[in-house]
Design a protein that fits this description.
alpha/beta; Rossmann fold; Uridine Diphospho-n-acetylenolpyruvylglucosamine Reductase, domain 3; 6-stranded mixed beta sheet; 11 helices; 48% helix; 14% strand; globular
Length: 341
């Protein structure tokens, strides 16, 4: 007898990302070997059927867990062979421990390159509703603006040819495990996910259960609704910010120059969104740019302009980003020696 929750995953996946939109093209599926990415892989493989498109599996071995990481890589290779899918794999150069942000950037750099080399139109990752809930709560705790409340976006441009998409954002853990159970599909367990040394794990294993038990048994649904509303408002603000930047900024290889008159109007939220959009366009790390740091950057840009021919003392921001201010221009650059012309 079919499990309704197991069937639910395929229904939700098909509703989130109709097969007609991707069946005829190449889709690169990011797969770690964990339950979520294995369920995404099996789900897309089942929905695609005999369509002319191609599923390419992409696995990046961060080499952070020794033999366990290598076993993940072997597991993914076996699954790719079982499904008759091409596998693109790469390994980190070193086993030296890295920060979460460094790991993320390395992973997405690999996915971007793999998408280009395989001619992928889409890159699918397995972020789920549970990831969305944890991300929104994490952002609230660290201090966030509207973008943080919006959580993980469903899709974004990865490069000029490929779009990153997260079709499982509406799917919960119970659907994932029920689907894999129905298939009899094994998956890899990352024991570090149980470690309370990481903030996200403490949110998952301690804070969320506490909130559900003592405050609101439907707190997950409440956070997902909050993210949906914030996303709608945030997308409107981003659209306006993108237009403002297109008309009033000068992008360079490792810098961006923004006319300060864009940042001096009364709407602080709009001004900060322009700064965030500039940050995103340069693909600079956002993780350490807390609400306080955005306030500091906006205050720096809004200070009385220096005399013509002079500059305000520069400020450094997370990611090694240097902010410089002239009479009419805020310049953000990745290299300290990269000065105003």
């Amino acid at each position: 007898m079919n499990d309704p929750e197991a069937d639910g995953l395929l229904r939700k996946l098909a509703a989130s990302w109709p097969v007609e939109a991707w069946r005829d093209v190449t889709v690169l599926v990011a797969i770690s070997g964990g339950a979520d990415s294995v369920a995404l892989t099996r789900g897309l493989h089942a929905l695609r059927g005999t369509g002319p498109g191609t599923l390419v599996l992409a696995h990046y071995n961060h080499r952070q867990r020794g033999n366990e990481s290598d076993a993940d890589e072997r597991f993914v290779a076996e699954l790719a062979a079982q499904l008759d899918c091409l596998l693109v794999a790469a390994r980190a150069d070193s086993e030296v421990a890295q920060s979460e942000d460094s790991l993320r950037r390395a992973r997405y750099a690999f996915l971007t390159q793999a998408a280009s080399e395989s001619g992928a139109r889409y890159v699918a990752t397995a972020h789920t509703a549970d990831d969305q809930v944890e991300t929104v709560l994490f952002n609230i705790l660290r201090g966030t603006g509207l973008s943080g409340l919006a959580g993980i976006p469903r899709c974004r441009e990865l490069n000029e040819a490929a779009t990153l998409i997260r079709p499982l954002l509406g799917v919960g853990r119970s659907d994932i495990l029920a689907y894999l159970g129905q298939l009899g599909q094994a998956y890899r367990e990352d024991i570090s996910n149980a470690s309370l040394a990481y903030t996200r794990n403490r949110i998952r294993h301690e804070l969320l259960p506490l909130l559900e038990t003592n405050y609101n048994p439907l707190v997950r649904e409440a956070l997902l609704r909050l993210a949906k509303v914030a996303r709608s408002v945030d997308e409107s603000g981003r659209s306006e910010a993108r237009q403002q930047l297109s008309d009033n900024c000068r992008p360079r290889a490792q810098a961006v120059e923004i006319q300060t008159n864009l940042l001096r109007h009364d709407d602080e939220a709009a001004a900060k969104e322009i700064l965030r959009e500039a940050w995103r366009r340069q693909d600079w790390p956002l993780a350490d740019m807390t609400s306080q740091r955005w306030d500091e950057l906006l205050a720096f840009a809004r200070q009385p302009p220096p005399s013509r021919g002079t500059q305000a003392a520069p400020r450094m921001f997370p990611g090694g980003i240097r902010a410089e201010l002239s009479v009419e221009i805020l310049r953000l650059a990745t290299q300290a020696e990269d000065k105003f012309e």
